[in-house]
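## tool: complex_structure
## caller: assistant
## args:
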Amino acid sequence: MKFNVEATSGKARAGTLETTHSKIETPVFMPVGTRAAVKMMTSEDMEELGAEIILGNTYHLYLRPGSDLIEDLGGLHEFMSWKKSILTDSGGFQVYSLSGLNKVTDDGVWFQSHIDGSKHFIGPNESMKIQKELGSDIVMCFDECPALPCTKEKMIASLDKTHRWAKICREYELQSHQNLFGIVQGGLDLELRKFSLETLNEMNFEGLAIGGLSVGEKNEEMRQLLEDFVFQMPEEKPRYLMGVGKPLDILNAVKEGVDMFDCVLPTRNARNGQMLTSKGPMNIKNERYQRDQNPPDVNCSCKVCQRYTRAYIRHLHKVNEFTAGRLMTFHNLHFYLQMMRDIRVAIKENKFDDFYQRFYKEFNSNEF
Amino acid sequence: MKFNVEATSGKARAGTLETTHSKIETPVFMPVGTRAAVKMMTSEDMEELGAEIILGNTYHLYLRPGSDLIEDLGGLHEFMSWKKSILTDSGGFQVYSLSGLNKVTDDGVWFQSHIDGSKHFIGPNESMKIQKELGSDIVMCFDECPALPCTKEKMIASLDKTHRWAKICREYELQSHQNLFGIVQGGLDLELRKFSLETLNEMNFEGLAIGGLSVGEKNEEMRQLLEDFVFQMPEEKPRYLMGVGKPLDILNAVKEGVDMFDCVLPTRNARNGQMLTSKGPMNIKNERYQRDQNPPDVNCSCKVCQRYTRAYIRHLHKVNEFTAGRLMTFHNLHFYLQMMRDIRVAIKENKFDDFYQRFYKEFNSNEF
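## result:
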């Protein structure tokens, strides 16, 4: 993997990240393809949207269809016919949040499948084995992710585990095209974050992620932590803020120097009738759109906005036609990916701050 | 509207049907877009599939979003951004089959909405008004469609109503681009069918449909009726067999001289995991496809079969990803539309009988 920072604007960075499968321009948003498909989308849709990397969820794919099956069929790229890059998470976050009755030991986590209640164990070795079978381009360390707020004592014990597990992951032999990212934890405590970062730096990962944010803390707290912390991360490595976030959260994190993002928001909210526009989120269920012949976002160049009206999409959503979810998902993903492209241009022109101010103001204009 | 029979092969016909919106090659299969969308599909999908005409359901569109709303927004073509042809049914069939507590009077049908229980009345005038508001290219007469078996006495009374209503529909002034089709009823009674046909012939409709089949009778009974009846219909007008059907039913009806078809089977079955192939229907849920890296149909040229495996589609279907329904719907519609294109070529080469034998044998080979 090759990562180059090509331009900066303030602390914001524009770069390229090259894997065996694609050249990814950063800052990048990675659409979430939980179970080997981005919800409502096909692989050709993702190509059309210009995505260079998508995310797959280790926990879900391990349970169904099974990472051994995916390995037998040539790996996740081949299985879902996706030729560009894939990042897989470690499975940890879903083990804690989705499964029943999980029990954390020193070596990993025992948990019950949320599907059939069957018992499973995933620790650092198991997570690496699964991600190796999936064959993703970027592999994430298996970590512990404590919900916030969390006592300092608990956080230190958790960090110790995360760091021990990171070492085990680092020693695991992955496929030659795979790259391992470490995950900095430490909650909102800047000193613990720095301690975590130093510990991980010694292991020389291909990239570093910031985990354990957007897990219950206030938005301002997350922003402050990012402001105080991100610039201390190694400049020459990609920085990935896991599970974030809303458009303005991403914009703020880019401002602090983050390069990579993922979030289910554009896909999940689409299915609930929320479309993102340059003037903020729009709820298509609202009666005012019943006869509205404007496109969802008058400033958007996506194929949905070129062709369909708010009135039509509202009707389809109201009668529960899947086509509604498809149209809104496509638009929302375009919104995110276009926002990242625009951010990148602004950084390369060293005008990120202007862009930030303009985007922020417009997105908060509350037109809808 | 212009209809030309360009070639025949036995009783089978190949022709063109020209509306203001598109030139339709016949025999034609019309995908069903019940509520202003073919389920799982967008209008650009239907263009990509090569559909020249789709069907909309008057009953559904009348209830939601309302035909008045659609008229205000420029008609159904504009509303769903579909530039090619649209046929709308009369609403009758759904009023009888879906609504609660319907009551047929001499003038039409009182019924309760299946959505909110509200009371409505649709008769021939109301059906014409709604279809005029929708602005479809082909409008269907409002008829009564008795379930089979049905006593002769009842059928005669029903026919009388259907014919009176047909006259009212004929006298209704539609939009200038719209064309009205009469519907022959009479169940399995050849004499009644001929009587119905003669009555409708006097009203000089732009096309004629065969209604009241595939409503409870045996498949052999339908085939016999078509064999005895279709060739008696006017040669110079398009013949539409409503709501039919399975691939072999369509093949048989083409053999008797039918030009137009519609059916929810390719779209509905796709959502239930059934894909149509040249070797018969395939149930993707079957465990034997778990690691099957073949395309759904090895003989199919559609983009789904060019890219995805049975194993992948099976996985998506098993975990309830909408993408599965989308891929299978696209494939099934391609199967139907390609079958019609192949049938047309065979008729034009006057080799329909060979095609019929070959298709029949292969489709019944029970490979799956």
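## assistant note: Chain B has two domains: 2-263, 270-363. Chain B touches chain A at residues 35-44, 60, 64-65, 69, 72-73, 79-81, 290-291, 293, 303, 307-309, 311-312, 315-316, 318-319, 321-323, 325-327 (CB under 8 Å). Handing back to user.
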